[in-house]
Amino acid sequence: MGILFSAGNFSQSRSTLATASFRLRYLFFLLAFSLFLIPEVSGQCSPDVTDPEIFSNNIDVYLNGSGLATIVPADVDNGSFDVCGVLTLSLDITSFTCSDIGNNPVRLTGVDGSGSTYNGKEIYPITGTSMWSSLTGKTKSVHTDEEMIGYELAGSSAIFQGNYKLVINPKTKGTGEWELYDISIDPSEMHNLVDEMPELVVSLKEGYAKYEEDNGVVPVPADYDVLKQLVKNIESGRSH
């Protein structure tokens, strides 16, 4: 019983992110059709500004007697390399069962070994959630129902979890109070659920507090007026 794995010629995840050279490479194998987006090798190694080159193979994998199969990066790698140092490869999916029989897109990722600093400054890890599982049909959405996603702009703050959005707008452009909406059925945010779901409100407030702490969000003054600030910015020749 075989499983055909389509291994995507996918990405580099460079540690020298301060050079703004982080890019994603996708390769989708759909039947006999393939689209290659391959980076060019350029730049110098001191500092390391050269992207890794990631190449992959399609492979056939067979289930064992227990109906299981596993793969490692070397199984799908097709000569990936980094001209400036050691390249570490990884796969997003390594284990498969009978339910996976057929074509299975697999993401091969390469991280170069240029370290965790650039020009003496710390390189911070990338945050967020990969869209790969959603793009390849493995999941219905990018984020799970348990994941909380914070947001803040010009004094307006919000946090999302599943279908719900907890939001607060300053009194200069809103109520100044937290409001809760089920945006899957109320995208216009007309039915405030704060009084109906107090436990969820508490949980989302805690999630937003963590988002503020993790991202260094600085609250605006209580009398902040985004329109007045915009006029000031225009008069002073600033865009924001």
> Topology as H/E string?
EEEEEHEEEEEHEEEEHH
Q: Stretches where pLDDT falls below 50 for ≥5 residues?
A: 1-43
What fraction strand? 25-35%
Strand order of the largest sheet: 4-1-8-6
Q: Average pLDDT across residues?
A: 76
Q: How would you describe this protein?
A:
The protein is of the alpha+beta class and 240 residues long. The protein folds into two domains: 2-135, no CATH class; 148-236, Arylsulfatase, C-terminal domain (2-Layer Sandwich), CATH 3.30.1120. 15% of the residues lie in helices and 27% in strands. It has four helices and 14 strands. The chain has helices at residues 73-76, 132-135, 198-215, 226-236; strands spanning 2-12, 29-30, 33-34, 59-62, 68-70, 87-91, 95-97, 103-112, 117-118, 121-122, 148-153, 156-161, 164-168, 179-182. The strands form five sheets. Strands 4-1-8-6 form a four-stranded mixed beta sheet. Strands 11-12-13-14 form a four-stranded antiparallel beta sheet, with helices on one face. A hairpin with a 2-residue loop joins β12 and β13 (164-168). Residues 1-43 have low confidence and may be disordered.
Give a quick summary of the entry:
The chain has four helices and 14 strands.
Set out the fold topology.
Layout: E1 2-12, E2 29-30, E3 33-34, E4 59-62, E5 68-70, H1 73-76, E6 87-91, E7 95-97, E8 103-112, E9 117-118, E10 121-122, H2 132-135, E11 148-153, E12 156-161, E13 164-168, E14 179-182, H3 198-215, H4 226-236
Parallel strand pairs: 1-8
Antiparallel strand pairs: 1-4, 2-3, 5-7, 6-8, 9-10, 11-12, 12-13, 13-14
